[in-house]
Specification:
five-stranded mixed sheet, alpha/beta, single chain
Length: 354
């Protein structure tokens, strides 16, 4: 059962309150380079990203947000630290959301100015606490960035906004330590009904970062905790979106596209399974399907027929040919060299007729 949280709207994307879990990413370009930033956001859109965050280090970057937003389609969140003037400019440029910690932007008057501006435009704020940037007094009190310290920091920032009668908030409490991250979110989930933005911060390379993010984000989602996610990987942000969507698919929380099931392979293989799976994945990756479809590709006659029959569409390969199953029934067989074309054609037909 999913945790019941209040709902906010970020540029038309609902977060919390029973809405589908959304996938976010962050551009790796210099926001001041408008053309390259637009190009990267469009690639994220094509990969299935629903919300994108942009770093705003100075006023030039803040002023670029409007042009970027006019040339892209998904909601844009400005990521701002310390300078409240950047937040005010981001609002003027039409951002859909803001990541800013109110305790870090100065006097109460500055905080009030930001809250007034976002209230007028119905712009939600994400309070984002990381293990590497906790307040000195909280760090001293806890001795290290413990889960309790992360939760305390987030609630402190939230209380500043609440005192100004602002509750259009979502919260993240990220850590590079997966166990601490999981524990921190559990604490926050029990203390507030604000929607939660999940992520393992600075997770690392695609290889290790995918594992850490899948464990951390996946564990919480399996408990019903989490309303939107961002996978943090060193490299192309499109990979972050792919991993995020696959995490949701694996938990039955993303009903879109093709879920490929394939065996690991062994000495019984009689077809080139690795090439087959890679070719199919590439062919279907950018196709818009009206419904989810589970496709199994198995490489031998031992487990293949049984497992293939459990999927919507399945291929059991062996001796240079593939046997096609649909809804658990053997439909036909064809030569190995025709498997990819025939399978993609069957997937498209299956989705169109359902």
């Amino acid at each position: 059962m999913r945790r019941i949280s209040r709902q906010i709207s970020l540029g038309g994307v609902s977060i919390g309150g029973g809405a589908s879990v959304s996938v976010q990413s962050m551009t790796k370009t210099d926001t001041r380079n408008i053309d390259s930033t637009i190009k990267q956001i469009r690639s994220l859109e094509n990969a299935g990203c629903q919300i994108v965050r942009l770093a705003v280090p100075d006023m030039e970057a803040a002023k670029a947000l409007g042009e970027i937003k006019r040339n892209t389609n998904i909601p844009i969140v400005s990521d701002i630290h310390f300078d409240y003037r950047l937040a005010l400019e981001a609002v003027e440029q039409g951002v859909d959301g803001m990541r800013i910690n109110p305790g870090n932007i100065g006097s109460k008057e500055k905080i009030k100015a930001v809250v007034k501006a976002v209230k007028e435009r119905s712009i939600p704020i994400r309070i984002g606490v990381n293990s590497g940037s906790l307040e000195k007094d909280i760090l001293k009190a806890h001795g290290s960035p413990t889960p309790q310290a992360l939760a305390e920091s987030a609630l402190r920032h939230a209380s500043i906004l609440e005192d100004l009668d602002f509750r259009d908030i979502k919260i993240s409490v990220k850590s590079t330590d997966v166990i601490k991250m999981i524990q921190a979110y559990r604490i926050i989930a029990g203390k507030t009904d604000y929607p939660l933005h999940l992520g393992v911060t600075e997770a690392g390379t695609p290889e290790m970062g995918t594992i850490k993010s899948s464990i951390g984000i996946g564990s919480l989602l399996s408990e019903g905790i989490g309303d939107t996610i961002r996978v943090s990987l060193t490299g192309d942000p499109v990979q972050e979106v792919k991993v995020g969507n696959n995490i949701l698919k694996s938990l039955g929380l993303r009903n879109m596209g093709v879920e490929l099931i394939s065996c690991p392979g062994c000495g019984r293989l009689e077809i080139d399974l690795m090439k087959l799976v890679n070719d199919v994945e590439e062919r279907v990756s950018n196709i818009e399907f009206p419904r989810p479809v589970k496709v199994a590709i198995l490489g031998c006659v031992v487990n293949g027929p049984g497992e293939a029959s459990e999927a919507d569409i399945g291929i059991a390969g062996g001796r240079g040919k593939g046997m096609l199953y649909r809804d658990g029934k053997l439909v036909r067989s064809f030569r190995e060299k025709d498997i990819v074309d025939e399978l993609v054609k069957e997937i498209e037909t299956f989705c169109t007729n359902r």
